[in-house]
Amino acid sequence: MYLSIIIPIFNEKDTILELLNSIKRVGLKKEYEVLMIDDGSTDGTRDILNKIKNEKNYKVIFKEKNSGKGESLKLGFKKAIGEYIIVQDADLEYNPKDYIKLLEEVSKHKKTVVYGSRFMGSYKDMSSLHYFGNQLLTQITNILYGVKLTDMETCYKLFPRELIQRLKLRASRFEFEPEVTAKIIKKGYKIIEVPISYAGRSHSEGKKITWKDGFSAVFSLVKYRFVD
Q1: Predicted confidence (pLDDT) per residue in 41-92, tens digit
Q2: Which of 75, 166, 192, 193 could bridge to 117 as Cys pair (CB 3.0-4.6 Å)?
Q3: Contact at 8 Å (CB) between 99 and 75?
């Protein structure tokens, strides 16, 4: 299957090349594309992307102003051509080698979305606030939507392109995760989880999500339980 890997990027000059090399090392057997959406970076990331934008399998889109992860992903979804789409953060918290696990699972089932669960696999360097926040948001999701997820907030989400392009997504920032999860479930798709690895980074190392985004996530979960 043709895979589109969408990477929203904002000020990741220290990690982006290492991430791209990690994707190459996965050894994907089928055709794939890497869509990099630069969200108005100011740290030199754009210079790096300009140098590699014409390499095989790469597509780069430059946004002039920073508008958030959700906006970057929506743009990437519109441009993607793969049969399936996976989201990849631009840091090194997630390991692309886990793509294989998600792809193997989706090939077994129809009308399925696959999430990579950090809490079914191995995780390290996750702060207590981040850990308990993830657990709380996942449990709220399970209660509101009648599912049994272990990691709703995971970055690794593998979607059929025809599904994700049909969803009316409104999130601009990190509330993308609860919104897309809510709308996938309401469309009748089953979410299957597979274990993945995770190595967290701190805000001093560039992590951008904060406790304030947790409130937006709760609001989104409640809101989309009752509206589209």
Answers
A1: 999 999 999 999 999 999 999 999 999 999 999 999 999 999 999 999 999 9
A2: 193
A3: no
Architecture field, domain 3-226? Alpha-Beta Complex (3.90)
Per-domain boundaries in the chain: 3-226
State the distance between the two ends of the chain, measured CA to CA, in whole angstroms. 30
What pLDDT, on a 0 to 100 scale, did the predictor assign at position 203? 53
Residue 211 above 70 pLDDT? no
Tokens of 86: 């996976």
Question: In which element (H, E) is residue 78 found?
Answer: helix 69-79
Q: What does DSSP assign to residue 189? A: P
21-33 b/e (C-beta count within 10 Å ≥ 16 → b):
ebbeebebeeebb
Coil, helix or strand for 31? coil
Amino acid letter at 7? I
Selection from 2, 191, 224, 20 nearest residue 115 by Cα: 191
